[in-house]
Amino acid sequence: MQRARRRVTLPDKRVSEEAFKMNELKAKPIYLDYQATTPTDPRVVDAMLPYFTEKFGNPHSRNHSFGWEAEDAVDVARGQVAKIIGASAKEIIFTSGATESNNLALKGVMKFYGKKKPHMITVVTEHKCVLDSARHLEQEGYKVTYLGVKDNGLIDLEELKAAITDETALVSVMGVNNEIGVIQPLKEIGEICRERKVFFHTDCAQAVGKIDLDVDDMKIDLMSISGHKIYGPKGIGALYVRRRPRVRVIAQITGGGQERGMRSGTLATPLIVGLGKACDILSNEMAEENARITELRDYTLQRFRDRLEDIYVNGDEHERVSGNLNISFAYVEGESLLMDIKNIAVSSGSACTSASLEPSYVLRALGVDEELAHTSLRIGIGRYTTKEELDQAVESICVAVERLREMSPLWEMAQEGIDIKSIEWAEH
Amino acid sequence: MAYSEKLIDHYENPRNVGSMDKNETSVGTGLVGAPACGDVMKLQIKVTPEGIIEDAKFKTFGCGSAIASSSLITEWVKGKSLDEAGSIANSQIAQELALPPVKIHCSILAEDAIKAAISDYKTKNGAADVDAAE
Description:
By secondary structure, chain A is an alpha/beta fold. Chain A contains 14 helices and 13 strands. In chain B, β2 and β3 (53-61) form a beta hairpin.
């Protein structure tokens, strides 16, 4: 990897040509999709390894040292996870990931409190696993309000206040959006919920390690955490469940009654150790890491703006995490752009990249014009991203955008001063 | 998504990208699709007085399959009569490029585009004249 990076450090005027050639030569791919997943930090892997082999005990085995050893490791990890969100270790429930955590939070809370309070509130831009859990609850007779978002991707707090009724048991609002990286006002939402005695759940899969989180200060009652979004292993996550005032949930997975009865199943000690270590690293390095990533993000955006016109950042430009750059490159369809930059791993909000052939529901919820939603790329910058990689990515993307715009009838019309909205398109 | 080599070749080296003067009487222009749907195709043909397509150009906003489909059809229509060009079916394009099922609409769009271009040319020149020339 080091060698590949060094090769692209070239005098400025040659970068263009060389970067393009690198692409042609199927250079080592550049990973800029840190919202999809992150590589496991080698320090995390090191911490995990002994728990696969010599320290393989079942943490629930109470009568021998193998079990105690594993249990101790799980306890340490529980503390590490709790620390990063200002919780106590007893409030952390390990799950298989944020999807399970979100399922447990929504279904678990609604099924416990739903007889008296059958209503919950969530947001249209939530992750699919929250929205789908809400849909399932609706099918079972619970009532769900889906709040819209403003054009910057943030919810309107007045709308939230108005939506809460005496029947509302739960409000679920994500901390950071996975597509556009905007940060919801968690503290203000927490205040509102506490005042109205409604539980506040937040999906923080994309927020942990990116923003400061404190469950007491923000009055959060439940929080979902993912391992693989924070340089930990896949297949592990956690749900924070507040003890005072106590939040009760109905278990969605039953069995031996582990995790205080909220989630049965033998704990995955190596994965838990990994999640703990990932949190521990963030506790120490988060501020520094985010400062570095912010600098890279701003630099990247500036380079795009210097080179290309008609590009738009999706989601609030300030209330967003450092590693997310979601940009619409007007007049260029996202999937064709991805095809052109195949050595750069990014995501697109284009319909053609989704199984449903619908453009991103998040971008549409923001009121982004559908034609612009088709032209978006999400560039994710993370722990291992280098400036050289971003230089190369910017160059490749710009070359591709310029090529595809030359091929785009919409770009041609825009150059001729024709407003594409004035044309009567035959929708198909 | 795994695409065929032919498709990738047309995407990476698209044939006949460009524009012609749409006001010229020998030029027929078809503009189909919609930006909101994620694909727009502009296909233009230049027709000889004998009714033969001597040149074709395209510009496409859309996915790789849409670009490849338009590139392919511009290649195919060159040298053909209007009737021959108008009888190209989307299934032929889909087959040639081995389009995956979710991309069949790209080939339909290409078929629509050539038909629209032929129709525009005929309207401009008076359908009767064209029939006589054929």
